[in-house]
């Protein structure tokens, strides 16, 4: 089934996944249209504003200059050869999967689907979402049959915001089709702008691949986080131990402790896998325990701050604590699920005089009920005035040696600083 169309690809959802996908496809000459239900996002994109970490103002200008346009009008689906869904899949209030955005997008697309079109889901979800949720919803609204009248496939997003080396074009693309023909159609699409396509037996294998990738990171981060706690009590330098272990050329991959996990993947994706496992009647204790360990880390960091201040004959109450880097990872502006939020809440409860600096965050609304904090304008003065400096993200903009030389006390949660006043997690 090959469809003649005026538009090669419609990307639904113009967030941190969808917009870079639009840029990568557009750069190879594909006619791309972006579709989003948020009119403010559409206006911002069409105005060339920077709304995603990986697309600069220049990149946005290049994208628009290539003929790309964003819209809220679902009618664009009718003229497209392929539709790629990049909508959010957060957790529900109960901690389970929330596929409301996937269902809503599918219902909006379905009446406009035509024979021969391709629909690909990139949003992270549990194995079975494509064939149990997406395909039936599209069939119900279109009157067509998935795998016969139109193609359906799953291809997990692998965006790593802020990564200067690996992007959409050079990161291998996993693709699983509802049928063999669906898989070929999706692979043919992605080969037009991605260097390597990896085909799986079906969508469930592709869905599981994404959850395996992030659950692997989740449990290994939990391992080193728990080791950080007891290595501190044993008087063992875990950072030195990790460096030594990393010299083994086989059978080992280095992971590093930190103040907790954040972002749109690591704290969320294992819950999707856990949900599916529990529907089979099995516990998923290993991964659930990893989640508990990682969620405890902001509280543990707070304890370490209190200990540092206590050793300096200072209480947490009234002490000025400066948090450096409040995003969930270095060199991005994304604050979602950042462990800095829980740490700030705990320090505030203890009466600390909170301050922060982050080159990517001008104002930090760390709690819904708290007054947003303004970024410290003079970093050097803020460090000198703080009773304790806490490095949460080692942004490239920070001169860490200079900061260590002027700080009274430093808790380094990233193993990036040295000095007489520095204590590593």
Keywords, please?
5-stranded parallel β-sheet, 15 strands, globular, alpha/beta, 425 residues
Which strand order does the major sheet show? 3-2-1-4-5-6-7-8
Query: Which CATH-level-2 architecture of the largest domain?
Result: 3-Layer(aba) Sandwich
What is the tally of helical segments?
13
Strand composition percent: 5-15%
The CATH homologous superfamily of the largest domain corresponds to NAD(P)-binding Rossmann-like Domain
The name of the CATH topology of the largest domain is Rossmann fold
Overall mean pLDDT: 95
What is the straight-line distance between the termini? 57 Å
Low-confidence segments, ≥5 residues, pLDDT <50? Answer: none
Order of helices and strands: EHEHHEEHEHEEHEHHHHEHEEEHEHEE
Describe this structure as you would to a colleague.
The relative contact order is 0.08. This protein has 425 residues and is an alpha/beta fold. The chain contains 13 helices and 15 strands. Helix 7 (203-234) crosses helix 9 (269-279) and helix 10 packs across helix 11 (339-349). The mean pLDDT is 95. The protein folds into two domains: 7-201, NAD(P)-binding Rossmann-like Domain (Rossmann fold, 3-Layer(aba) Sandwich), CATH 3.40.50.720; 222-424, 3-Layer(aba) Sandwich (Rossmann fold). Strand 9 (320-324), helix 11 (339-349) and strand 10 (353-357) form a beta-alpha-beta unit. The strands form three sheets. Strands 3-2-1-4-5-6-7-8 form an eight-stranded mixed sheet, sandwiched between helices. The chain is globular and about 75 Å long.
């Amino acid at each position: 089934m090959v469809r003649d169309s005026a538009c090669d690809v419609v990307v639904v959802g113009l967030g941190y996944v969808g917009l870079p996908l639009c840029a990568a496809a557009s750069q190879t000459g594909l006619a791309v249209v972006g579709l989003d239900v948020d009119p403010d996002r559409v206006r911002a994109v069409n105005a060339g504003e920077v709304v995603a970490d990986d697309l600069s103002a220049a990149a946005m200008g290049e994208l628009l200059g290539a003929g790309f346009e964003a819209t809220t009008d679902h009618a664009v689906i009718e003229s497209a050869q392929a539709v790629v869904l990049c909508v959010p899949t957060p957790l529900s209030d109960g901690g389970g999967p929330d596929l409301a955005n996937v269902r809503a997008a599918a219902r909006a697309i379905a009446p406009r689907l035509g024979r021969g079109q391709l629909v690909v889901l990139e949003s992270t979800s549990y194995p079975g979402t494509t064939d149990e949720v997406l395909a039936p919803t599209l069939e119900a609204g279109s009157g067509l049959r998935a795998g016969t009248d139109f193609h359906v496939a799953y291809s997990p997003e692998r965006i790593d915001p802020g990564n200067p080396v690996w992007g959409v074009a050079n990161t291998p693309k996993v693709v699983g089709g509802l049928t063999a023909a669906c898989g070929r159609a999706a692979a043919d699409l992605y080969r037009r702008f991605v260097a390597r396509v990896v085909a799986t037996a079906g969508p469930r294998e592709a869905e599981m691949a994404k959850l395996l990738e992030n659950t692997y990171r989740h449990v290994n981060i939990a391992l080193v986080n728990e080791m950080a706690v007891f290595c501190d009590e044993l008087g063992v330098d875990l950072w030195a131990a990790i460096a030594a272990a990393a010299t083994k050329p086989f059978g080992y991959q280095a992971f590093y402790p930190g103040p907790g996990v954040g972002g749109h993947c690591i704290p969320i994706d294992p819950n999707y896998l856990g949900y599916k496992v529990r529907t089979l009647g099995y516990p998923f204790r290993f991964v659930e325990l990893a989640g508990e360990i990682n969620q405890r880390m902001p509280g543990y960091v707070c304890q370490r701050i209190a200990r540092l201040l206590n050793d300096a004959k200072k209480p947490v109450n009234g002490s000025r604590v400066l948090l450096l880097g409040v995003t969930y990872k270095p060199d991005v502006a994304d604050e979602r699920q950042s462990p800095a939020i829980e740490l700030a809440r705990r320090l505030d409860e203890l009466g600390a005089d909170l301050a922060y600096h982050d080159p990517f965050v001008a104002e930090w609304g760390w709690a819904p009920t708290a007054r947003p904090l303004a970024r410290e304008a003079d970093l050097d003065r803020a460090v000198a005035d703080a009773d304790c400096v806490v490095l949460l993200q080692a942004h490239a903009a920070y001169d860490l040696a200079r900061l260590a030389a002027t700080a009274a006390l430093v808790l380094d949660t990233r193993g990036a600083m040295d000095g007489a006043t520095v204590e590593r997690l």
